[in-house]
Amino acid sequence: MTTQIWTPLDYARAGKQLGNLHLPHSVHRSAYGTITIPMGIVAGGTGPTILLTAGTHGDEYEGQIALTKLLRTVDPASINGRLIVLPTLNAPAAKAGCRVSPLDGGNLNRAYPGDPLGGPTAAIAHYVSTVLLPLADFYQDFHAGGSSLNYLPFVSTRLSGNAELDGRALAAARAFGAPYLQVWGYSPDPRLSTSESNRQGIVSLGGEFGGGGTVSRQGLAIVEGGLRRLLAHFGLIEEDRDCEPPRPAIELEVLGRDYYVYATEDGVFEPMTDLGQQVEAGAACGVIHAVHDPARPATPQHFEIPGIVVCQRHPSLVERGDCLAHLATPRT
Ligand SMILES: [Zn+2]
Asked: Which residues of the chain have pLDDT under 50?
């Protein structure tokens, strides 16, 4: 079964086209309706094709803003290659301001390679896997911590096991020029967008640029500067003389489940570290208070290994099993 998603835009046409992907979605109020997913294609010259997506999770905003601004302002006459840009890839989730789609509960970054006959989220993943990624020489999917996490902003690569592919991804990440560069050597799930691009042998980057369901001004500036440097790295635009050259990043990695701290109790979490802080093995991550029962002592939560705190939970109320924080370690 091929995709049901269609678009009036022409991937082969030069110039700047702004429009939508249309995913048929028949419901009570709209029998022949479609879900519209905004997309821009900007092409000229003979350079490579760069696929850029944000809003894979609807409550992560730095990428959504930066890609919208890019489409609004980019001059097709200045582009050598092709940009395919989707600022709100999981459009129903972005419209709702939620991590997952309100239509099917789907988490787009746990849906690859997708299913054309699944729910809307699986159908979007399938279109990316079978139509967009095969057009691309390079892919970047912009993330943040969403409503439940805060991140130290970083650009990231995900190890594929293919040394040549991983080397090109690392070179692209360094060209992006974020203050922190993280290599994911551990993947909690194989159904990620960047895992799919790895499976297809396409160089890809990710990145977490803020969180808390809001816009990090620092994270947005990192994304906007990084995008200009990345497009210059791939030869789509001239080097921007006004754009600060990339500074050497602090390079980090995540290598296992023991980098993560999970709540052992329900309650109110009091953190005892800040993003960017170095901690030792066994250090206090925080305590969980049983606020409904002041007679009970608070329950300490600990880091298993030494590292740098790059992610912390945002809402204070926690349930047993929630991720409270995770670490990264200097890249070896
Ligand atoms: Zn995300």
From this structure: none
Question: What's the CA-to-centroid distance between 145 and ligand 1, angstroms?
Answer: 6
Give the residues across from 287 on adjacent strands: 270, 300
In the structure, ligand 1 is a single-atom ion and the residues with CB under 5 Å from it are 57, 60, 143
Res 242: pLDDT: 66
* CATH 3.90.940.20 for domain 15-254: no
- Output the 3-class SS for the chain: CCCCCECCCCCCCCEEEEEEEEEECCECCECCCEEEEEEEEEEECCCCEEEEECCCCCCCCHHHHHHHHHHHHCCHHHCCEEEEEECCCCHHHHHHCCCCCCCCCCCHHHCCCCCCCCCHHHHHHHHHHHHHHHHCCEEEECECCHHHEEECCEEEEECCCCHHHHHHHHHHHHHHCCCEEEEECCCCCCCCHHHHHHHCCCEEEEEECCECCCCCHHHHHHHHHHHHHHHHHCCCCCCCCCCCCCCCCEEEEECCHHHEEECCCCEEEEECCCCCCEECCCCEEEEEECCCCCCCCCEEEECCCCEEEEEEECCCEECCCCEEEEEEEECC
Task: Domain ranges for the chain, please list them.
Answer: 15-254, 260-330
CATH class assigned to 260-330: mainly beta
Per-residue pLDDT, 239: 78
CA of 223 to the centre of ligand 1 (A): 14
Rounded Cα–Cα distance for residues 238 and 54 (Å):
24
Distance from residue 55's CA to the centre of ligand 1 (Å): 8
Is residue 104 within 8 Å of residue 120, measured between CB atoms? yes
- Asked if 55 and 35 count as a contact pair (C-beta separation under 8 A), the reply is no
Structure tokens at 323: 């991720």
b/e map 47-76, b = 16+ CB within 10 Å: bebbbbbbbbbbbbbbbbbbbbebbeebeb
Task: Name which of 127, 103, 128, 125 is nearest 114 in CA terms.
Answer: 125
Q: Give 161 Cα–ligand 1 centroid separation in angstroms.
A: 23
